[in-house]
């Protein structure tokens, strides 16, 4: 996507820098958004290769491809890279590109800080991925970095801690930038309740980021001092408790999963009305539902810890609080379906991904409800059932929404319509192989196959072989996406300013591709 | 709102962010090398710090010049206000993690270790108490830090510094530059005295009380909470010093001085954190 900004726009660009220095020094939200998107796709491929190595090992029982040590490292880094390197930066990329265009702002509120938010990510990625090559290899404690394992790891763990710190700084600055942009930079007449829903979901996401990223920083700081400076936060002999880490981590971790899904809700809420040719059903209830999910996300964290030992009252509280989240989520799914109800629907690639999102994400939501039931969770905790559950919401949820958004706004970014045949091929390959990969994992988990283990009992062999075939199919399908994007950047049908027939919003009032500077004079919204 | 919306200042491309990124990369890599005793670890770390300091000087210098040149209008001012508020909120959450850990060990984990099977089978004879170094029978005994010596004095000092800063702010609003400078100077002085007492207290803890970072969970929470607070006082004092220099250079008008206000917000935030520290770390 490096050429998303065509050559002819360079002349608009004031400032002396060209070539690489242009990208290093840029303060333009579109340039920065593009860099975020490219970075996240590179990280997506890196994390994907790790996942495929894991699946190759799990194709058959026994050890064939990697040793258990490397398997654990790859499991850990796959999680960290996908969460912090791929999904989160991709959504920030969308926020950078689209929020100023959607609210009629000339740029982000803090354009220089915006640049730093992005350019902190490559150093973090270097520390994280580089940790494979240090003595002892990368951290193998799982992406949650639980002690006592994480206290005992080698150098790779310290590199991961500093990487998490740097990514945290980046996220907090990015989130503050987005909050301030939305609160202070809206065009005249763009009241809060007229904002596109993508802006609303990002506003709430940014609030969550500011609230929980510092908590994660605190948690890994305590890990660092426990590892090197003799503190006893997570050491029972000194009066601390390893479970304390889990509480702090999941106080961050549960809002974090909504950080990765709320912007996806926003993207889908932009796309469904366009291709159903009807306004979004229940706009206000969508806003309230998103806020409710965000608030509830702070009081459900211990459902990740039902097996650590907890008073029954605690289990009941966290169980019911978690189930409560199904209510606002149900409101959202209802509204999307109601938006489509009796609409004049067409199924271009963005719509396919959005509808696919609703279908498959909802399945992930349902398994989430099952996991929330404390007595059931004690059975399926740390099994492949949980792996299936969170890949249904993170891959078919967050990732499919990202693809939907990419196909939806590619015309605005490149000036060309994406190739429908390639896009549809990408969608059908993705959704089929996704289900081939992850659906069998429900059965594996219910049958008791533990996750994060490189070997397994013979009884699990068939479903694992199937999942591995699906995973390689899914991985290769993503190259179709790369092909679609490159083709779209290099040419194709010219996109009109309003690239999709009934797309609504300020972003469709500027030419395609969007000029380097937009809305230097604020538009008036009626 | 009318259509004549004031144009929002968007800065030119800037070289400073990449310096910050390189600085943090060197800082992280250097810290890891140092911790594992690999060759030039400290050198790499301090190179990172030096680049970071250069970046902060350059970047903030540019912001100050832009501000003095009148490039920022009311809308940018509003952006600064929102962002400083949210930044302080993120700091609150950072401290919340450590206060939460303190609450957890005092209310939950130490009592658990001293009761039921834990006490019967693992840590026989361990009784619930606070301060506690945990049930490790080989732990070095230590004396906890009392509340009514230096800490109480430090509370008084920080509260006074909040008052002098507010006094300076009122002077600024009246355009009374002399009292503004005096108020800022007194605030910085009180901050430095506070830090001096903290350093003395740490020496006292290590030398006389045998209270160390590795004195179980009490030492862990005591030094991490007071240490991060001390770091924030240091940052606040540096910010106040910059404000003093800017005042002497003739910056700030009664109706336009957000940098001063942001520093004051930060200083009061550090003040409030201290009050909570005094109550739950030193006193109770």
Short recap of the structure:
The complex is a heterodimer of chains A (526) and B (284). Chain A has 526 residues and is mainly α. Chain A contains 18 helices and no strands.
Set out the fold topology.
The complex is a heterodimer of chains A (526) and B (284).
Chain A: H1 19-25, H2 29-57, H3 68-103, H4 111-119, H5 121-130, H6 149-152, H7 155-184, H8 197-228, H9 242-259, H10 262-276, H11 283-296, H12 312-324, H13 326-340, H14 349-372, H15 374-380, H16 384-414, H17 420-446, H18 461-490
Chain B: H1 16-35, H2 41-68, H3 74-113, H4 116-122, H5 150-174, H6 177-209, H7 216-248, H8 258-283
Helix pairs in contact in B: 1-2, 3-7, 3-8, 5-6, 5-8, 6-7, 7-8
Structural account:
The complex is a heterodimer of chains A (526) and B (284). Chain A has helices at residues 19-25, 29-57, 68-103, 111-119, 121-130, 149-152, 155-184, 197-228, 242-259, 262-276, 283-296, 312-324, 326-340, 349-372, 374-380, 384-414, 420-446, 461-490. With 526 residues, chain A is mostly helical. Chain A has a domain at 29-256: Up-down Bundle (Cytochrome C Oxidase, Chain A), CATH 1.20.210.10. In chain A, helix 10 (262-276) packs parallel to helix 13 (326-340), helix 11 (283-296) packs antiparallel against helix 13 and helix 13 runs antiparallel to helix 14. Chain A starts with 18 loop residues before the first helix and ends in a 36-residue tail after the last helix. Helices cover 75% and strands 0% of the residues of chain B. Chain B has two domains: 15-71; 83-283, Four Helix Bundle (Hemerythrin (Met), subunit A) (Up-down Bundle), CATH 1.20.120. In chain B, 35% of the residues are buried. Chain B has 284 residues and is an all-alpha fold. In chain B, helix 3 packs parallel to helix 8. Chain B is built from eight helices and no strands. Chain B is globular. At the A-B interface, helix 1, helix 4, helix 5, helix 7 and helix 8 of A face helix 1, helix 3 and helix 7 of B.
């Amino acid at each position: 996507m490096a050429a998303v900004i065509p050559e002819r726009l360079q002349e608009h660009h004031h400032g002396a820098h060209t070539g690489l220095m242009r990208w290093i020094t840029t303060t333009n939200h579109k340039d920065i958004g593009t860099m975020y998107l490219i970075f996240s796709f590179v990280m997506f491929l890196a994390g994907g290769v790790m996942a495929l190595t894991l699946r190759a090992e799990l194709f058959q029982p026994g050890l064939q491809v990697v040793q258990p040590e490397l398997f654990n490292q790859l499991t850990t880094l796959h999680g960290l890279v996908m969460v912090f390197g791929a999904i989160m930066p991709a959504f920030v990329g969308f926020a950078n590109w689209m929020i100023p265009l959607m609210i009629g702002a000339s740029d982000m509120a803090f354009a220089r800080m915006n640049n730093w938010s992005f350019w902190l990510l490559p150093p973090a990625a270097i520390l994280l991925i580089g940790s494979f090559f240090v003595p002892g290899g990368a951290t193998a404690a799982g992406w949650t970095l639980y002690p006592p394992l994480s206290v005992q790891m080698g150098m790779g763990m310290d590199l991961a801690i500093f990487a998490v710190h740097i990514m945290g700084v980046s996220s907090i600055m990015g989130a503050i930038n987005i909050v301030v942009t939305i609160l202070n930079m809206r065009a005249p007449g763009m009241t809060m309740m007229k904002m596109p829903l993508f802006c609303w979901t990002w506003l709430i996401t940014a609030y969550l980021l500011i609230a929980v990223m510092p908590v994660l920083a605190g948690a890994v700081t305590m890990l660092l001092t426990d590892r090197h400076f003799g503190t006893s936060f997570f050491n029972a002999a000194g009066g601390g408790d390893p479970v304390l880490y889990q509480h702090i981590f999941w106080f961050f971790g549960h809002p974090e999963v909504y950080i990765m899904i709320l912007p996806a809700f926003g993207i889908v809420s932009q796309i469904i009305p366009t291709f159903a040719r009807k306004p979004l059903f229940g706009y206000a209830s969508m806003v309230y539902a998103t806020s409710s999910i965000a608030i509830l996300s702070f009081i459900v964290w211990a459902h990740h810890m039902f097996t650590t030992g907890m008073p029954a009252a605690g289990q009941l509280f966290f169980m019911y609080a978690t189930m409560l989240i199904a209510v606002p989520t149900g409101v959202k799914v209802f509204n999307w379906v109601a938006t489509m109800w009796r609409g004049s629907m067409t199924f271009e690639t963005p719509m396919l991904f959005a509808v696919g999102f609703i279908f498959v994400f909802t399945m992930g939501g349902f398994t989430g409800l099952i996991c929330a039931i404390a007595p059931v969770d004690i059975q399926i905790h740390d099994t492949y059932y949980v792996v299936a559950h969170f890949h249904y919401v993170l891959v078919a949820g967050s990732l499919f929404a990202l693809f939907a958004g990419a196909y939806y706004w590619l015309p605005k970014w490149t000036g060309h319509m994406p190739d429908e045949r390639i896009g549809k091929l990408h969608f059908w390959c993705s959704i089929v192989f996704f289900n081939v990969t992850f659906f069998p994992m429900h059965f594996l988990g219910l049958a008791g196959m533990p996750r994060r283990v490189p070997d397994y009992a013979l009884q699990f062999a068939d479903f694992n072989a199937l999942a591995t075939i699906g995973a390689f199919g899914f991985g290769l399908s993503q190259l179709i996406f790369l092909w679609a994007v490159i083709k779209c950047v290099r040419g194709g049908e010219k996109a009109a300013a309003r690239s999709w027939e009934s797309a609504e919003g300020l972003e469709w009032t500027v030419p395609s591709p969007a000029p380097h500077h937009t809305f230097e004079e604020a538009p008036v919204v009626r | 709102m009318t259509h004549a919306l004031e144009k929002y200042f968007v800065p030119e491309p800037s070289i400073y962010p990449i310096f910050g990124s390189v600085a943090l990369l060197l800082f992280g890599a250097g810290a890891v090398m140092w911790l594992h005793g690999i060759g030039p670890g400290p050198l790499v770390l301090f190179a990172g710090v030096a680049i970071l300091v250069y970046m902060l000087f350059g970047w903030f210098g540019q912001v100050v010049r832009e501000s003095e040149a009148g490039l920022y209008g009311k809308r940018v001012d509003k952006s600064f206000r929102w962002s400083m508020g949210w930044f302080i909120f993120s700091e609150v959450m950072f401290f919340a993690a450590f206060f939460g850990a303190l609450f957890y060990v005092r209310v939950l984990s130490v009592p658990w270790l001293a009761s039921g099977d834990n006490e019967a089978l693992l840590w026989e004879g361990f009784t619930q108490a606070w301060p506690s170094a945990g049930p490790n029978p080989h732990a070095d005994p230590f004396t906890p830090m009392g509340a009514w010596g230096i800490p109480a004095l430090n509370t008084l000092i920080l509260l006074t510094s909040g008052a002098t800063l507010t006094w300076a702010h009122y002077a600024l609003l009246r355009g009374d530059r002399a009292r503004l400078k005096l108020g800022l100077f007194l605030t910085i002085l009180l901050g430095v005295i506070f830090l001096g007492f903290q350093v003395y207290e740490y020496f006292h803890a290590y030398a006389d009380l045998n209270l160390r970072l590795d004195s179980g969970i009490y030492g862990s929470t005591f030094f991490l909470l007071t240490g991060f607070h001390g770091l924030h006082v240091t940052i606040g004092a540096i910010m106040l010093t910059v404000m003093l220099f800017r005042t002497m250079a003739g910056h700030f008008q009664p109706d336009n001085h957000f940098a001063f206000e942001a520093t004051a917000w930060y200083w009061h935030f550090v003040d409030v954190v201290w009050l909570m520290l005094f109550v739950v770390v030193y006193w109770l």
